[in-house]
Input
Amino acid sequence: MYSLTRTDAAARSALVDLESVDVRLDLSAAGDTGSPTFPVTSVLTLTVSGAETFLDVIGRVEELLVDGVPRRVEHDGARLWLRDLPVGRPVELEVRARCEYSRTGEGLHRYVDPEDSRTYLYTQFEPADARRAWPCFDQPDLKARWTFHVTAPEGWVVASNGEDLTGSRSPLPTSGAGTTRTADAAKLHPVDAALTHPADPAQSPSSTPDPAVPAQSPSSTPDRAGEGPGEGHPATDSPSGGGPAVRTHHFAPTPPLSSYITAVVAGEWAVVDGGTWRGGATGPGSDGRTVEVPLRLMCRRALAPHMDSEDVLAVTRAGLDFYHHRYGTTYPWGTYDQVFVPEYNLGAMENPGCVTFNEHYLSRDVPTVAQRQGRANTILHEMCHMWFGDLVTPAWWGDLWLKESFADHQGTLAAATATPYTGEWAAFAVGRKAWAYEQDQYPTTHPIAADVPDLDAARNNFDGITYAKGAAVLKQLVAWVGEEAFFAGARSYFRDHAFSSATLADLLAALEGSSGLDLSAWDRSWLHTTGPSVLEARLRAGEGGAVEALDLVQTPAVGAQDVLRPHSLVVSTWALRDRTLERTHRFPVRTEARSTPVDTEGVLARAGALDDLDLVVVNDEDLTYAVARLDERSTATALASIGTCPDPLTRAVVWASLWNGVRDGLVRPADLVRSVLAQAASETADAVAERLLAMAGAALDTYTRGSRRGGLRGASAATAREQIGSTLLPADRARAWARFLVLTATGAPDPAPADVEVLERIAGAALPGVEVGPELAWSARTALASVGRADRDRLDSWLQGAATGEARTWHARSVAALPDAASRAAAWERVLSGALSNEALSATLWGLTHSSWEGTELDGAFFEEVLGFWTTHSIGMGIRFVRGAFPGHADIDVPERSTRLWERAESWLQENASAPGALRRLMLEHLDDLGRALRVQEAWT
Output
């Protein structure tokens, strides 16, 4: 299928002046799963400077009209050719098509909840899947005013980017009495009496209503001016043939939007009316506007009791305050819906006014503080996009990083400064940046400002460089130019390019104007080079324990470009006193050189100064992007005592240095695991504590040779059991340690009886002192299945006890993990059948690759099937297949299998030199992971 190229996009952009797109979407039969397609009509108004171009649509094109006159349809499956167009005057194109409902999370996705048979639809388009739902010019710089008309079954909730003019934005009639909160809080309303919970008699009339109750009431808020049905816009239709009643929702035209952020959500959603946010941009150069923004939350009815609306809405309001204080432009998109959707390929998507989130951000388990903090970051990331990405959009996907890096940085900053989740920068340092360092050391690494010749390349660039490295580099840019100048430049950028497209050059020009700095050298060294720098402190000791010199040395990482980058950072020194680390010195350093003096004033040139250097932390406060090395003494101190450091961000930076040391073969993986086991329980930053457990698990499973995993696994499980049983441990931490125990035991050969006993208790949701929800229980059931302690009948009985949509996915994962040949063969057949949804595919592959089964038959099967799978499925499903099925189990103690796997992967790459570039990139990265794991294992005999 044709993948739009940068060259074709630029030519089309030069030819087409697009004014508006009117989309008529008929979803009246969406509840019938026997109907695989839906009718849609797009009416586009445009002016062209040339007579020939093409429109994007994937589906069956039934009719093309130009100014009302039928034309011959020339459609190659992706491009609808437009020929002999009138030039130099407005033209109306009308395209009638039938497009397919998706099960892959691309286009218009349809999900039927097995728990209650309700139907849910949502769109997901980035980078170019709007063409799967309606005919359009599917490229970011061709913005238009969009108007949507959506016909859906009566009683369905329908949302889009614009205001619903049919008066149906307010929740629909209910079967029970509604309950409301105060004016600025959420209003929740029951839809079905069967879904409501009895009120707590201990609650006063003014107390917060139960957030388990889904909202659907017509009287939840007063009608706003202009919200009711407009003239000529009927709210309810009577279908011919006597079928079920339907309703057509007419949405107000949007401001200019790119196609990839248009959105339609429809179905039997539960709705929380979050009241109204009131305010406007403040600060220098603000636009002076004031708006009222209606807030809503939506999710599947079955998840309504777990919406956690209080926290989500509190973060939403804090974010709107934060961005309006800094951006100078008032929110321009009218309403603000946030919809948690099933079977989602991403974390979230910034559709203006209709933001979609992966429903995994909601949980039937009680979410931990770390999970709520991660969700807050995502909410604020997507909200930042309302300005950076939606208001001002990259002209082409080569500047994808601009919007994603900016939102990643700003979401973290907003969470850390405007919400209770003040530890978000520490979580970024030890978690998000690890993704960046790993991605940036692959042989497939690319500059932040990447070369993106076509859409397939764009899809693969949603990676750790585009998001996390870019965000880290922007944090360094803020340190370099100053926060005040940074936000002044952002305000100019939004003001000058509102509702348009822009490039990196436009952003840098705005920042140069606000800071007075020439950023051309910064641009070249940071945005157009690859690989991380390595920063380390080197000292020279003198007589009497004096420090004659302390220098910051900059070198390239192995395989990276040798680039001297400008850094503004902090080097700190710490002494271990009374078993506690105390900071003794803080040295701000600004460098562009290979070696730079740190102690320019000679404060360490005194006798005994070495006693203050038990730990030297390079890049304390995490201001720059570089692999920060610890010297030998600092490494020993960190492994034994970093948990005693009083500063959470410093602790996170040091843990990140230790993790990079493990991956680079400089820190023994077993030492890191033992350090985490000894210190994670005392970590006060919840998100950092959970990240430490994940690091320990990866160090054990990936970087430790097989013959030594058993002892470490036993120590890990024993520590987890001890922590779970502690009466002093907060409930959040107990659940985190329980998850750690489960993952440690999954797929383990010969699990200890004590571990199996705890797994059984978790699987039965009967672990004393720990609140076990269904997600945690099913993870334990998967673990039991993976080691042969739960058979198919037992898994089926657990599913019958609560056959929710999530449980079916977890059940599929568990069944695939069963360590017997027949179960594995059946699971692999399901993978190749093409019948699995996106999430079912990933769950099945996860089970297959986390089983205690020791056979190698799927190693060869993967290499035989991967190219065929990629070419017969969407790229999203292809990515899931490669990531989930690549046989990456590395063990230097089983050299025959490891060598055979390495050779097979290399042979595949040699034999498939002409395979799609996106597929070859993924295969290269997995091969690199395998090689790194084997090298690290071999380094520690």
In short: The longest strand covers residues 90-102. Residues 170-236 have pLDDT under 50 and may be disordered.
